[in-house]
Structure formats: structure tokens, C-alpha cells
């Protein structure tokens, strides 16, 4: 059985630094006495579908355990009904579960009051890859979904919804200057079908969290090319897109195009379904607490690796599952806070 000791630790590129203890203590969010939950930071998690309810749970739970003051889950009625009793601290935004004309716009309209109050939104875990997701994300981002394999834009099925294809037009999602956006999983798959999508997303407002397969769809590179140089690929495309890219591959790397942070460890226990949903929720929570995007990603990489290593002591490399991670991350945050206070 492979162990962490069998993994060759990569050499840092010139522009990269480790996401280590000293870095984590430096960027760790701090709360003032008497602060309010909205001042701590609100996160909206847009996630889940009937086949992938767990992704919504994992992203929401990890956002809460990572310090967000309030977490709101936006999903369909079926997902929320399934999960509500398991997450009593999470508020809910019920979205239409239909691709009927105008449904995408109605879903965005339901989201808008919550986005106005939040500081971060996590989009994509478990959303599914279907027409409903296409229409909804097209309305939310402000440019239309594409017919798979053609690159051609399609409408939303109703005259009240327009496709905002002008690069100077602000989308409903990015209309709120305080809002940072984590784009994950099925939202990345959708984004890969949007021609020149980066021209529609204001610089520095998004954190993309692809694994090599998703990065291949976004870039046109092969997975072999991506895994051969994850630091270089993450940096190059973060610079092209003017966003933070978190490339999940072994020692995961985050880059904003100028600087990069790399996870100091690569626990093999994190190779389990749902760990990416947890990472997205963590990053969203740190963004909501006003941590800069690259630092938020780096802090999430550090804590995720620490949590994985700690859980391995109890369950071994093979026994850790994603639902173990959010509570372990909360405990690691507690340790980090204690360490920071002692320095």
C-alpha cells in the first residue's frame, strides 16, 4: 500500500511558497468581540441535485466549520427536504426544479436578495450536467448556455430572459462588488463550454477549483500535460483568466498568476469522493471572512491536508470518508488558533 512517504514532494517553482504553519497563522481570520454573524461573513452555497445531495451537505457543512457566520444552501426542494434535518444551522433558498420557460430567471431572482447580503458564493458541487443547470448558470452568470459540442449559445426558453454576451455587461452574479465566487465541479464543466468566458468575469472575483480532467476541459490541454507541470499550468491559466486557479492534483497548487501556494502535504486519504466539495466550502468561508482569494485557497489547502493527516491516525489512509472532514477541519482551526495565540 502506498503511503505519503512514497510520494515525491515537488520542488517549488520560483513564484511559489508552501502553505505551511507560518503562512496559515498569518492569514487566519480573527473575530472581534461583539461581532454579528453577517459581519463574520455569509456564504451562499449553490449545490446539489437529486442524484448528488451529499455534495450540497459537504460544501455547506465545511463552510460552517470553517468559520462562516451564516451559510445558506440554494437548491431544489427535493435536496433541501432531504438535508434540512441534518443541517439545522443552514438556511435554505428553494430554487425551481424545472427548465420551463422563465424558470432560470425566477431562480436567479430568488437568489438575488441573499447574494446582496453575502460575501461569498460557492457554485457547482453536485448541480448536475443537464439542461436545467445550463439554463440556470447561464442566467446567473449573465451569458447563455451552449449546445454541447457546438459552442453555439441557446436561449432560456422565455422572452423575459436575455443572453448578456456583451463583455462590458455585468452579470447578476458579479453585480455585487463584495461578492467573491468559488466555481467548482459541474459549474466548471458548464464554464468550459462558454466561449471566452473569462471576458465576462471581472478580474480577481473568482476562484476556480478544477481537478486535472476539469482543467483539461477548460484549457484544451491533455491531463498528462497538466499533471506533468501543475504549478506551471495553474499559474499560466490564472494569469490568462485573471482569476485564482486551485489545481487539485497530489500536492494541490493555487495561483493567481503572479504568486502561488502549494499544499505542504498530500494525504492519500483525501482521494475520496466529496473531498473537493469540502475544499470548495472551506474556500468560500474564508473568502466570506475577507481573506484574499489566493490566501483563502492556501489556507484551505493547509487545513484540508492537516485534517486528512489527523483522520488517518484514527481511520488509516483507506478508511477516511468526506463526511469525516468538516468536523476535523473545525478542530484543526481550533489548534491553529491556539498556536497563533501562543506565538
What does it look like?
This protein is an alpha/beta fold and 343 residues long. It has one domain (34-342): UDP-N-acetylmuramoyl-L-alanine:D-glutamate ligase (3-Layer(aba) Sandwich), CATH 3.40.1190. Helices cover 43% and strands 13% of the residues. The chain has helices at residues 21-27, 37-40, 53-65, 77-83, 103-117, 131-141, 186-192, 212-219, 223-228, 230-241, 275-288, 293-319, 325-342; strands at 16-19, 42-46, 70-76, 91-95, 120-123, 180-183, 206-208, 244-247, 253-255, 260-263. It has a 10-stranded mixed sheet, with helices on both faces. Helix 4 (77-83) links the parallel strand 3 and strand 4. Helix 1 crosses helix 12 (293-319). Mean pLDDT is 89; it is low at 1-5 and 145-169.
Strands in their spatial order, largest beta sheet: 1-10-9-8-7-6-5-2-3-4
Write out the CATH superfamily name: Ribokinase
Percentage of helical residues? 40-55%
Oligomer: single chain
Number of strands: 10
Please report which band the strand proportion falls in: under 5%, 5-15%, 15-25%, 25-35%, 35-45% or over 45%. Answer: 5-15%
CATH C-level label: Alpha Beta
Which structural category do the helix and sheet elements fall into?
alpha/beta
The radius of gyration computed from the alpha-carbon positions, rounded to a whole number of angstroms, is 19 Å
CATH topology label: UDP-N-acetylmuramoyl-L-alanine:D-glutamate ligase
CATH architecture type? 3-Layer(aba) Sandwich
Put simply, the count of helices is 13
What is the distance, rounded to the nearest whole angstrom, between the alpha carbons of the first and last residues?
Answer: 38 Å
| Outline type | globular
Largest sheet: 10 strands, mixed
Amino acid at each position: 500500500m502506498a503511503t505519503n512517504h512514497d510520494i515525491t514532494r515537488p520542488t517549488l517553482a520560483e513564484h511559489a511558497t508552501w502553505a505551511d504553519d507560518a503562512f496559515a497563522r498569518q492569514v487566519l481570520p480573527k473575530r472581534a468581540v461583539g461581532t454579528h454573524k453577517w459581519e463574520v461573513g455569509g456564504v451562499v452555497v449553490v449545490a446539489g441535485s437529486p442524484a448528488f445531495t451529499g455534495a450540497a451537505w459537504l460544501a455547506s457543512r465545511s463552510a460552517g466549520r470553517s468559520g462562516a457566520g451564516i451559510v445558506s444552501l440554494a437548491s431544489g426542494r427535493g435536496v433541501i427536504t432531504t438535508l434540512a434535518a441534518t443541517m439545522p444551522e443552514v438556511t435554505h433558498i428553494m430554487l425551481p426544479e424545472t427548465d420551463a420557460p422563465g424558470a432560470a430567471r425566477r431562480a436567479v431572482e430568488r437568489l438575488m436578495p441573499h447574494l446582496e447580503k453575502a460575501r461569498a458564493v460557492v457554485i457547482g458541487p453536485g448541480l448536475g450536467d443537464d439542461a436545467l443547470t445550463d439554463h440556470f448558470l447561464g442566467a446567473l452568470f449573465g451569458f447563455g448556455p451552449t449546445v454541447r459540442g457546438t459552442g453555439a449559445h441557446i436561449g432560456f426558453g422565455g422572452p423575459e430572459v436575455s443572453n448578456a454576451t456583451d463583455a462590458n455587461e455585468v452579470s447578476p452574479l458579479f453585480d455585487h462588488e463584495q461578492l467573491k465566487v468559488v466555481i467548482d465541479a459541474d459549474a466548471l464543466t458548464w464554464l468550459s463550454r462558454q466561449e471566452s468566458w473569462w471576458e465576462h468575469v471581472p478580474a480577481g472575483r473568482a476562484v476556480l477549483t478544477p481537478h486535472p480532467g476539469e482543467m483539461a476541459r477548460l484549457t484544451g490541454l491533455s491531463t498528462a500535460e497538466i499533471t506533468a507541470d501543475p504549478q506551471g499550468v495553474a499559474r499560466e491559466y490564472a494569469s490568462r483568466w485573471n482569476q485564482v486557479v486551485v489545481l487539485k492534483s497530489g500536492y494541490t497548487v493555487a495561483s493567481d498568476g503572479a504568486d502561488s501556494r502549494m499544499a505542504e502535504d498530500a494525504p492519500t486519504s483525501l482521494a475520496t469522493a466529496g473531498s473537493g466539495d469540502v475544499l470548495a466550502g472551506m474556500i468560500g468561508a474564508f473568502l466570506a471572512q475577507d481573506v484574499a482569494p489566493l490566501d483563502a485557497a492556501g489556507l484551505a489547502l493547509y487545513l484540508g491536508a492537516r485534517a486528512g493527516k489527523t483522520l488517518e491516525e484514527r481511520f488509516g489512509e483507506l478508511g477516511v470518508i468526506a463526511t469525516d472532514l468538516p468536523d476535523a477541519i473545525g478542530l484543526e482551526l481550533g489548534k491553529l488558533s491556539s498556536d497563533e495565540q501562543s506565538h
